[in-house]
Amino acid sequence: MIEAKLYATLRAIAGSKTVTLERQPDTVGAALEELIDRFPDLRAGLLSEEGTVRPFVAVMVDGRDIRHLDGLDTPLEGDATLDIFPPVAGGSR
Amino acid sequence: MVHTSPRITSMIRLRTHDDGFWVPEGGMDMALGGYANRVARVDLTSGTVTYEEINEQDARLYIGARGLGVKYLLDNGATVDPDGPDNMLAFMNGPLTGSEATMSGRMAIVTKSPLTGTVSDSHIGGWSAARMRWAGFDALLFTGRAESPVYAYVEDGKVELRPATDVWGKGVHDTVPHFQDRYGDDVSVMAIGQAGENRVRFASIINEHDRAAGRGGMGAVAGGKNLKAVVIKASDDTMPKVEDRDAWRPVHQRALGVILDSEVTAPKAGGLSLYGTNVLMNPVNALGGIGTRNSQTTQFDGAEKISGETVRETMLVGDPTCHACPVACKIEVEVKDGPHAGVHMESLEYEPAWSLGANCDVDDPRVLAKLIDQCNDYGMDAIEIGNAISMYMEATQNEYVTGGGIVWGDTDTMVATVDQIALREGVGDLLADGTARAAEQIGHPELAMTVKGQAVAAYDPRAMKGEAIGYATSNRGACHLRGYTPASELLGIPVKTDPLEWKGKGELLKIFQDLHSFSDSLDLCKFSAFAQGAEEYASQYSVIVGEEMTADDVMVAGERIYNLERHFNNLAGFDGKDDTLPKRYLEEPGTGPAAGSVVELDEMKAEYYAARGWDDGVVPESKLRELQIVQ
Ligand code: SF4
Which residues are paired to B119 by β-bridges? Predict the structure, then answer.
């Protein structure tokens, strides 16, 4: 079963670092849909009003940002790693 | 840049000092606003201090802080011995420093680096820069060498050299209270610790809030000059205020507004504000960009344990800030248990968490707090030291060193080694000369993850190609901040680019380098660029300095400053052959999401040089003329 790993401010919303996706989504879009159904407050942080991933939000499948794959249509295989980051930044000194 | 409007500034009352010299309360008369128009030249050999005005033409061309500092260095001579008394150590403010402008609390310290031999600048936050401006200075230029230890005392437009023998030998954490007890709380103390005194080549200058002019060995230059500290007494009573409030208000509100609204920088809401820079540990690890065990692999199993999220959950006790900054990205932590219980420090940042953590196979943030705190007290660059130790750990792994060496993750020995490096004892004496020189001494230079003698930062170039060309071509040796391309490769600022794709990164890097050269010369915190851009920089400059500047002018001025630095380096003997990367990045592929990826260095250099108009890393005469660097 695929686990969605959540980071930074998303953790407090979901109340957890990881969420096991029960509907066995076969795309990133389906995975986000399940997450938002279960934790509706995630929507505002992740998706725009048009339903696209908001700018600066990084959704990665096996370490590759879906903006360089097929976006929300990116397929999810059974053992895929799904990481979801809200806008983050830094780089000291 | 066109001169279209009269001076609009706070340049207000002047009053006489007891030596009869007119000193500024906010500045001296000058066609350009923003500047205090006062520079102190301090000859430590003779003990004399002379004062001069800012050269207006230079200020127009090179703005201030980093840009103007490099110009002073160039005029001092690009071929001076960085270890000798002729080298200059310049403490430089920009025209926005210490003003009402958001994030304007930065100062550039500029010198010829004893680590790299290049020109180098390192920026310090907190309130040091603001206090220097409030004390009436744009620049303090130190040359020569004092016969015995001194500190420079700065107040009311005057600089005095005073004996520092009673604090010589002390760490920063004892030096700062010494001066606060003597002069009160409204002082800033920029000091070196034992590392600077012992000429550790990557010694830093650290202030009362443990903010560091971290990279390039600024502290080693100060130590070589017998300069223990710069102590500045000033309060915000003399903070410059823009006279034309109607002009300033909308410009300020726009510049502040984008910071408050940005999902990255929003106070108490954006990732940078809540978790500090170490919010990057997890995403960079997810994309396979965390060099591990001296960059032998590029993903670290312990990343979550040392991430900004974990630190916030388990150790955070405060979120300090700098002058005029609502973001407050600093991370003040306390170690609550374990052998280092009681360590209370700021700030646990991403770069040292990587260099001393993942790169040395350490996954305990409590130990990282201890190690970084040691570096702050001794005054050392925590990025370089983590690389030096990890290099030595790999040498140990490969049985290249005699004795026990240091094994991966041996935190007790790491703590002891940090002491030894600062005091130049035992193996510490070897590592104190920096990662590259130490690896050379061991007979295995290939173990040094360095460029031009300075160690890399927390973005593995095999996973983030913007940083690959960034490290290779940086004017101050490997550096992630000369052109912060992760903004694009990770976040999508200004556009999202694929971190594994090399094409276009040379051009992207040039844009970032030029933009940062300008903001580093204002001097605004570089993190402003997560929300602000050339437009905001131009409008703030225009109102405060009183000369109309457009966003295009900003990019040209930034390009000029970047080329000025490169010209300095060319005169110091650097060219395209120095723009390179450790063999590991070119031949050994990354792991995880970066599996199979190596750096396409030659292709990237060709693209970058074409964008810059350079001939194999050298600024041609025609470019120098085009940018008005030479007439
Ligand atoms: S963003 Fe952080 S480093 Fe920059 S000025 Fe603000 S507190 Fe200081």
Answer: B112
B465-626 has CATH 1.10.10.410 classification? no
Pick the CATH number of B277-455 from 1.10.569.10, 3.30.1490.190, 3.30.365.10, 3.40.190.170: 1.10.569.10
**Residue partners of A40: CB distance under 8 A and separation at least 6:** none
Query: Is B350 in contact with A90 (Cβ distance < 8 A)?
Result: yes
Q: Please check whether residue A15 touches B, CB under 8 A.
A: no
Sequence-distant (6+) residues with CB within 8 A of B96 are B34, B104, B522, B523, B524, B540, B541, B544
**How far out from the chain centre does Cα B146 lie?**
26
Do A89 and B264 lie within an 8 Å CB cutoff?
Answer: yes
| pLDDT, position B468 | 98
Predicted TM-score of the model (pTM):
0.95
Strand partners, B52: B39
Strand B150-155 with B227-233, pairing: parallel
What is B12-241's CATH topology?
A: Aldehyde Ferredoxin Oxidoreductase;  A, domain 1 (3.60.9)
pLDDT band at residue A89, thresholds of 50, 70 and 90? low
pLDDT digits (tens, 9 = 90+) for B178-231: 999 999 989 999 999 999 999 999 999 999 999 999 999 999 999 999 999 999
What are the backbone dihedrals phi and psi of residue B567, each rounded to the nearest 5 degrees, phi first?
Answer: -60, -45
Domain ranges of chain B: 12-241, 277-455, 465-626
pLDDT confidence bin for B16, thresholds 50/70/90: very low
Pairing of strands B119-124, B107-112: antiparallel
- How far is CA B1 from its chain centroid? 27
User: Is any ligand 1 atom within 6 A of the Cβ of residue B103?
Assistant: yes
Assign B345 to helix, strand or coil. Answer: strand
Distance from CA of B308 to the nearest CA of A (A): 8
Query: Pairing relation of β-strands B158-163 and B187-191?
Result: unpaired
Burial of B368 (0-12, 13-18, 19+ CB in 10 A): buried
Q: Is B76 exposed, middle or buried (0-12, 13-18, 19+ CB in 10 A)?
A: middle
At B5 the pLDDT is 31
Residue B83, classed as helix, strand or coil, is: coil
Q: What is the pLDDT of residue A87?
A: 78
Residue B320 CA: nearest ligand 1 atom is 7
The CATH superfamily assigned to A3-85 is Beta-grasp domain (3.10.20.30)
Q: Does A67 touch chain B (CB under 8 A)?
A: yes
Region B133-138: mean pLDDT is 97
The number of beta carbons lying within 10 Å of the beta carbon of residue B457 is: 30
Question: How far, rounded to the nearest angstrom, does the alpha carbon of residue B93 sit from its chain's CA centroid?
Answer: 14
Residue found under tokens 């991430």: B307
Among residues B360, B101, B91, B393, which one has the least CA distance to residue B242? B101
B37 in Cβ contact with B24 (< 8 Å): yes
Distance CA B269, CA B262 (A): 9
Domain range summary for chain A, segments of one domain joined by +: 3-85
Residue with tokens 């130490």, as numbered in its chain: B438
Ligand 1 centre distance from Cα of residue B181 (Å): 27
Q: Is the pLDDT of residue B249 over 60?
A: yes
Q: What is the predicted pLDDT for the residue at B8?
A: 32
Q: What CA–CA distance (Å, rounded) separates B504 from B80?
A: 37
- CB within 8 Å of B317: residues ≥ 6 apart: B332, B333, B334, B344
CA dihedral B372, B378, B382, B384 (to 10 degrees): -160
Buried b / exposed e along B412-448 (16+ C-beta atoms within 10 A): ebbebbbebbbbbeebbebbbbbbbbbbeebebbebb
ipTM of the complex: 0.94
